[in-house]
Batch of 4 targets.
Target 1
Amino acid sequence: MTILKEATPVARKEHKCMFCYGTINKGQKYLRQTNVVDGIVGDWVCHQECQSVARELGMYDDCDPDYGLSDEIFNESINQYIYDEHYDSETDDVQAEWQGLTRYQEVCKILNELDKNDSNRNT
Ligand SMILES: [Zn+2]
């Protein structure tokens, strides 16, 4: 996969995030990447947060370099992270505060949490 162009424009209309399938709102900054995959040029559009979380969780490390990171792996990795970090053995389910969120809310929550862990480590 070759990245031809990467930009973070402000959305002038609503877009759909290709990682979490959530809405990128009008006026929200998002990531637009123009890629060549298998000789085909296409645009990849996603939340900045979704890309950050993918980087933070190292998803790019194990994806296929020819095709980049797929939405499938992204969503599996998010599920796995929540399960690993927030599974409650008493209820045999993920903790209540992690239930009923949209994927995008989960992504923001994970980023928050990773930030917090980082600052703990620094002090
Ligand atoms: Zn997203």
Target 2
Amino acid sequence: MAFWTKLEAWYNDYGRTLPWRGIDNPYYIWLSEIILQQTRIEQGRDYYLRFIEAFPTVADLAAASEEQVLRLWQGLGYYSRARNLRAAAQYIMDECGGRFPDTYDGLLRLKGVGRYTAAAIASFAYRLPHPVIDGNVYRFISRLRGIATPIATDSAYREFEALLTQLIDRERPDRFNAALMDFGALQCRPQPDCTACPFADECEARRTGRVDMLPVKAPKAKPKDRWFYYFDLRWRKEGVRYGRMHRRTGNDIWKGLFEFGLMESDHRLEGDELQNEVWRFLDITYSCQEAGYTITDEYLHQLTHRTIHARFIQAELPEEPVSHPADGMIMTDRQMNSVPVPRLIDKYLQTL
Ligand code: SF4
């Protein structure tokens, strides 16, 4: 039986019902695809629904402030995705007359849109025959055909794209792609039940006993450790409690999000060394030789390429400290809970 006939029969029985399936609104499809990168479907679904409610059109998203978008994105990680969404929405409004690009190449010009996302929007919104290739598709196809090229490399992408371009249903590329992704996610899982698979009699990995060995993955780099020491200094004025937060800038994690004054070290600070560095930072940055501070235990926060070890230095000051440089924003407790912050800071704030 032809590949698509078999796959479609399976999809008719087991395909997933998702809020962004069966629609042809390119803006909604784009939002869903960007949210779902590096995110589980269950978690992504809530964010998707919140985004389309807050920004029902691309014009609404383009008009939103970066802070509004980041706040809504909070908890999803990879914040550059949110900044790129807003930048691309503004590009669509300013450069494309508010019209969503309707070609594969036009889609690739949107900030944050790569080959996978362009193929997804092109096929789901415009029924253009571009195959989507995500981790699930790599797994299924590499096993089915016994392909040992390390995945997620440029040459693997071209190899799988050429193969799937031959197989794709040119009339219904949207259905084909949805079925392909679902099959990889639900049937050809990391530990699959091959006895229930409609491709069992032609699967190369099964025939050669290599199901556990495919797909071949390029070795991952070990995450790098970083040690963050945050200064959560508070004071009261006319009965209201204040603190100071700073917006992260530069080409680093969490750009655009807010955090407390930060001292970063290239190793773990402990004992006298920690006390001395804290005192020095308080003196130099805040002109404040506050003796009554406490230091929390370590908060461990895992990112894909970084392990953050964070401790918070807490102090109640008699008055607002002088800050050098005089940047940052003075906020009430309530304001701290309404600006976009990294999940690590949010976790900390929730424990207070
Ligand atoms: S037989 Fe097993 S490994 Fe092969 S495609 Fe089916 S589920 Fe995947």
Target 3
Amino acid sequence: MDLNYTDIHAHLADPRILPLAADILEESRSRGVRGILANAARVGEWPDIVRLTANPLVYGALGLHPFFVEEWYDGLIGDLRRALRAEPRCVAIGEIGLDFYRGRTDAARQMEAFTTQLALARELNLPVILHNRKAWPEFFDVLRQAGLPARGGVCHHFSASIEIARQALDAGLYLSFCGPLTYPNARRLKAVAAYAPLDRVLTETDTPDLPPERYRGQESRPFHVQDVVRELATLRGTTEPAVAQQVETNFLAVVGDGVEWWRGKG
Ligand SMILES: [Zn+2]
């Protein structure tokens, strides 16, 4: 049986794979992928993502990743607002959030960039695609103080504890799982994926990173969500079609319909 798969978080504009994007999208389509949200990390990727949304498989998320907070400039929010308003298939703000993995020297700037982009998401009624590493207390503080947009948000590559998962679900967020869910030693992650309500679960690849177990050592590709769906079905004692169908419904709820978004952003 042919299933429909969706990837809520792929970096199709990453310089490592951008030249291959046309082939990757054709491969994705032929393997049953029915939707990909292409996420930006840096401002320079925004025009490439806009261009990629010409492919009917692709939706776009524009934003500035915390790794690249030094790229922040005074007019960034104005440029982001204009880009999102101009492009009906750019339907989310991402990838945004906090990352203290390499230390906290720019924590204040990261929190300001995160807060400001959240405010724009509320203004434009767009969902947010969230990155977080080693910063959960600050992450929830910012969400409490700034507030999530009504269209909610997605914890991309969720990999924290059940307690954090519960907090994220209580905040109204989706949890998105990718390649590492299939690693044999990922016991804590598998427990979270079995625990989360299926109507709050998404699949992703973080293409070109985080490949599933059987592709380890290679770049990931959007069709690798097949392995994540299979793992979710096993962990939850259900079928792959049941998982794929609900995850597609969740994906569509996040990205919406281009026409609807266009009106919402007017
Ligand atoms: Zn990412």
Target 4
Amino acid sequence: MANRWPTFEGRNSAILLECVRHPRRTGAVASTPLCCAEAFIDRLAIEEARHVVELGAGTGVITSALRHRLPSTALLLSVEISPALATQLRAKHTADNVEVVCGSAAELITILNDRRIPAVDCVISSLPWTLMPIEDQHRILHSISAALADTGCFSLLLAASHTWTTAGRRFDTLLREHFPHIRKERPHWANLPPLRAYHCRLSDR
Ligand SMILES: C[S@@+](CC[C@H](N)C(=O)[O-])C[C@H]1O[C@@H](n2cnc3c(N)ncnc32)[C@H](O)[C@@H]1O
């Protein structure tokens, strides 16, 4: 049976090492628990998606859960800034419908233009938003809103405890400036700190 809880082997040692090297950029000492990733993916309307982007794929727990839920015709672009993690992701995800891009989420529009993808149906992120400079938050959110199809959805996982901090409240305000329709889920307690999913849209469909 698959291990649904984090162990300090394999992917967790990879992210722990990355966190020691780049703590603010990594934002986690362990990968997202599989049960959190699956609960998150279960709430996404991706059955008919053609283009899906994951920002900050890390060790690929969400990538794997996503890949199994996407239609076979969909393309998943997984963007990861860490060269070490991106190399591991590429080795693990060799399917034709998954492309791992080593780069920054801030380059999203260039990444899509290079592949002639005009718009995406869904953007998913577990980026460490509240640890980023506000200019980067603004730039990435602007790119996501420009990349999304009118009916698209931007879904993110955020540490619930961060939402009460000054940085968390500032991010919340910025999120609302970019996305008029936001639905927040209850926290997933299987992660420490608990994770909360947000689903953000440009229109109410
Ligand atoms: C909280 S971790 C993601 C954990 C992931 N869900 C997992 O299970 O391994 C955040 C990830 O975002 C990546 N990241 C941070 N800033 C980024 C950026 N600007 N563009 C792309 N990836 C970024 C980090 O390198 C890290 O792998």
